Each structure stands twice: as C-alpha cells, then as structure tokens.
Amino acid sequence: MILRNVSRTPMRDKILDSADRLLARYGYQKTTADDLAREAGIGRRTIYVHFTSKEEIFLASIDRVVERMVDELKRVLYSGGAADERLKRMLVARILSRFDSVHDYHQSLDDMFSALRGAYLERRERYMELELEAFAVVLDEGRQAGLWTNPDSRAIAATLLHATNGLLPYSLTGRELGSRPEVERKITLVAELLLDGLRRR
Question: What pLDDT is stored for residue 170 in this prediction?
Fold first, then answer.
C-alpha cells in the first residue's frame, strides 16, 4: 500500500525535506544515511524509526510529490466552473505541480529512478489510478453537460495522461525543461489542443 499509508508526522516530513535537498546537492547514489541525519539535524537512529532504508525514504519522497499533485488536481476539480475549463486547468496543474516539486533536483531524477526502477514501477500503476479517478470525474461532468460525447471517461482520461507525460520533468532534459513559464506555455498549448479534439468527438 502506498500514499497515505503511514501517518504523516513532522519528523517524517523533516527527513523527506532533507532528502529532497540532498537529492539536489548530491544525487541519489551519493546521499548516505549520515548525510540525511546531518541535514535533518537528527541522529541516524531516528531516521530508522521512521524508515527502514534509504530506498524507502526516496520512494516516500516520490509518493509525497504524487500526493501533493493529486491534492492539487482535486482542488481544481472541485473549484467550480465549466468542466472543460477545469479539465484544462487540471492538465496544467498535473505538470506544473511536479515541475515545482522537483525543479531543484530534476537533473538527479535519472539517477534516482534508475536505482529505484523496480520499486517505482510497482507504485506507478497506483499513481496513475489516483490521477485517473480525478480526471474521470471531470470528464463525466463534461459529458453530462454536453461538452463532449465520449462514452468511456476512464479511457479518455488515460489517453490525456499519456498524451501529457512527455512534459513531466523526468521525461525532459534540463535544457528541455526550461523555465516554469516555458513549461506552462507548452502544457497549456497541449491541453488546448487535446480539449479541442475532445470537444469534436
């Protein structure tokens, strides 16, 4: 079980914040438990009260990025307004929330995902399911409002997610990632094109 499976505590968040800073500074491979303890200002044993391994710490960090992104999707989903406008804002938020979460250490992502690949892939399906749930709701609302006629909101949601995955930070080099305004411009354009296609269905 992942995401919200362990009660969030200030100490866990302090350790995860330290892990994020060290990922930016040293990368995954070079970061040690001693580095984490020193960065967090705690004893090494305290780390192992909350996490069983360095791998678990960094997987929990990824979980936290996804958790925050899903919270942002739900905030937009329930913010009111037309379904097509909320869908567009959700697509933009999906990319920008991840960009904001990992911008300081995006160059270390390849290193981390390479080391955690197996465990990450097991979690990725659950991450996708959480996103699909939110997008399917707004797609159903849009269909009921007559904005589009798609019969399978989950399939359309999966297509939208796959179509925008190319703008996620781990899919881009540092140069391609660019600045936040540039990423926002790109995802907004992609979202508008996808919505235009969806409305014509």
Answer: 75
